[in-house]
Specification:
The protein is an alpha+beta fold. The protein is about 30% helix and about 25% strand. The radius of gyration is 28 Å and the shape is globular. Keywords: Glycosyltransferase, Hydrolase, Transferase.
Length: about 800
Amino acid sequence: MIRASEDQEYYELASPTALPKASGFLWNEKMMIHMNCRGYAVAQFMQPEPAKYSHAPNLEAKTFMQPEQPYYAHHPGRFLYIKDEESGEVFSAPYEPVRVPADQYTFAIGKSRIVWRVECKGIHVEMSLSLPREDAMELWRVKVKNLSGAPRKLSIYPYFTVGYMSWMNQSGQYHEDLQAIVCTSITPYQKYQDYYKIKEFSDKTFLIAERKPAAWEVNQEAFEGEGGIAMPTAVRDQELLSKGDARYETPAAVLQYRFELAPGDEEAYRFIFGPAKDEEQVAQIRSSYLLNTNADGEDGFTAAEREYDRYIREGRGRIEITTPDPDLDNFVNHWLPRQMYYHGQTNRLTTDPQTRNFLQDHMGMSYIKPQTAREAFLIALRQQNASGAMPDGIILHEDAELKYINQVPHTDHCVWLPICLSTYLDETNDYSILEEKLPYADSTETESVFEHIHKAMYWLMNDRDERGLNYINQGDWCDPMNMVGYKGKGVSGWLTIATAYAFNVWAGICESSGHSDKAREFREEAKKTNEVVNQYLWDGEWYARGITDDNVKFGISTDREGRIFINPQGWSMLSGAADQEKQSKLMRAVAEQLETPYGVEKLAPSFTSMREDVGRVTQKHPGSAENGAVYNHAAAFYIYALYAVGEKEDAYRLLRKMIPGPDLEDIVQRGQLPVFIPNYYRGAYRQFPRTAGRSSHLFNTGTVPWVYRCLIDGLFGLQGCAEGLQIKPQLPAGWKEVTVKRDFRGANLHIVMKKEPGLNAIEVYADGAPVADGILKDLKPDTEYQVLVKIPDEV
């Protein structure tokens, strides 16, 4: 039912009902579309803020992408009705809205293309979706083939939902000169000042057809009639659609084609769907994509598909692996770098990404496009205040402003600067970035990146209470933990621990850049911070999450709900706060209370009612999002920490649980194909086991760069350093041999790792010569190296 294609280019699902929310996504830097296997879609484009061109049937509030998207009959979608003109039978592709079971069905998610193949009633339908590299629009191909032994008379009806565009003004009609349906609206507004913001918006939605249709309908109600979307009256009862329009009525984009197919014959169609400012732009799109050809005789549509595929393939990772786990290989080689590239290339399609997200997403870009990551770090630091404080969001467009959660003060953003920059330095050895001179947001003063990060570290050092614990204000990494410290006294246990880790990381960077005095200073500060952590936050078996405004410690053994949180446990191993005895105790507590078949939960037990001194995290449904889900971002922190202290078996076990499968039962429970890591899987495993494991299907997540770090720094131990490439693999016990291709600073390394009995330590050989310290030095760009790594066999 579920398999990777032989060329590893697609992941295929053979049922629209076994995993009804299975999905994939495509993007460019102006738009994103999330398609599920049944034909439902969530799409947005930037102008400059996110906007819709395919709407719900009611006026939508502007929100982030929603977890566990609730699909419904009139959810925006892309559908094809197929009618046998002789028998009157109707089915639809991909599956919705008619829901006739197919004889054969395939939903294939590719890197640059999503494809459905449906065979039903002797007819084969193939629908495929791609995007251009730059423009905000969807490129669709539809093929219809007669598989039966008799001629067939058919009508097909491409149906692209437009939905409720505006309460002010909406309409739609077919333009014969454009061979397109164009639906028009005006973005609703109240204040006259807003008119000047929306006057240039692309408020039209178009469906351009390459081939002239026999008929069309633009009025959704007239099309559906009494039959509804599942069996529209216009399809069931009319020979031809009515060629209607929509006049302050909900528009739709429906075309009709009538044709006869001899046995084995096929008809092919192409469509373009998207937003536009006016009909002139629609005409330009039609001309550019369907009428004009290049020197090779290729039209714009085909050229755009090819160019988009090339664009997506630019997001290539830095490792290619072959291990005893082929499903892991497929995910790491193809899908993980793709998801990481999406985050870094688009900034999650927002003009004000959260600072922590922006920095961590570009931590991941350090592996794919280091120059892009470098510029991102500089953009962020230009928006730092002279006090050292970082803003809650990074402005990326001149008309942007901080919105939503970025209007709520959080205290963790400075922590991420050295942590994320360290990956860039490991990968590139580009310490010149520290010498770049940058201004501050609130000062004419210009200082080096080195001084900027110094100020960020001093800000963390000073934003503390009398005990030396870091204030939380209205949240740290956990956005909805908004009521722990809003009175100005509450502190974050996790942030205090993370600050100690950040000090140690920065000390290492200082050391490598020739500032040994600063390195000593920050190592001493890390030591002091860890001492404070152990004095005030150790609860006997694990670390507390924080202390409220009213001096109530939480995340401790006496709490009925929210007794243990994952973040303080993992970060205490990274910071050095937890000695060997504490590590053993907290790891046992995590295994007993937080680990599930789907990964490690963020907290447990999940809160079932509001706790007013913690905040709205406790109001979220138990086991969803931050309230006890397997929140993969936090789980990745913990896994990275396990690798940092050499706990490779626990680390790999939890790492593998992040990826659906390989067992079919596991994939079905999660409801997701292994083509991305979601924001979370449902938790509350011990409280509500029936729903545990369900995927959120949100592919926006800071998880992916940390998973990549777990692979490179931990599992395969191929981490960059100032001297070169340090090789310290931590393969799980069952693996005897792996191969890894590693691109590093322009060099191409072909690495074989083998376990051999009788060895006392790891041995590394480069082109046959032993490498005494396990660090490959003086690697030359555009040069290939054969590396053998012999590992003691523990079995």
